[in-house]
Design goal:
Pfam families: HTH_Tnp_Tc3_2. InterPro entries: RNaseH_sf, Transposase_Tc1-like. GO terms for molecular function: DNA binding. The protein is mainly alpha-helical and about 90 residues long. Helices cover about 55% and strands about 0% of the residues. It has five helices and no strands. It has helices at about 5-15, 20-30, 35-45, 60-75, 80-85. The longest helix has 13 residues, at about 5-15. The protein starts with a helix and ends in a 9-residue tail after the last helix. The mean pLDDT is about 85.
Length: about 90
């Protein structure tokens, strides 16, 4: 596979991360470049694009967003001294 074909394939994956190896093969064939599905997968793996699909759902659900907002509004007037006694799980120092 030529460097130009690799760049073309990587640009296509950047535009649409959910594109399959079969679709990449077909799009390269339209450009008169014949490769196998496994070759496209190997080329993508060498360039740091692995066969993992991006997350389909948002990290926070509507319910979690509402609960966080409710918590923030309830604790709006809490003095800063109150927060010094809280054990934060995201603090690794």
């Amino acid at each position: 596979m030529t460097a130009r074909a690799q760049r073309r394939m990587l640009n296509e994956v950047k535009q649409n991360p959910r594109v399959s190896a079969e679709d990449l093969k077909i799009s390269l064939e339209h450009a008169n470049i014949s490769v196998d599905k496994s070759t496209t997968r190997k080329t993508l793996n060498k360039n740091g694009v692995h066969g993992r699909t991006p997350r389909k759902k948002p990290l926070l659900s509507k319910k979690n967003i509402a609960e966080r907002l409710k918590f923030a509004k309830e604790h709006l007037d809490v003095p800063p001294r109150y927060w010094q006694n809280i054990l934060w799980t995201d603090n690794y120092s």
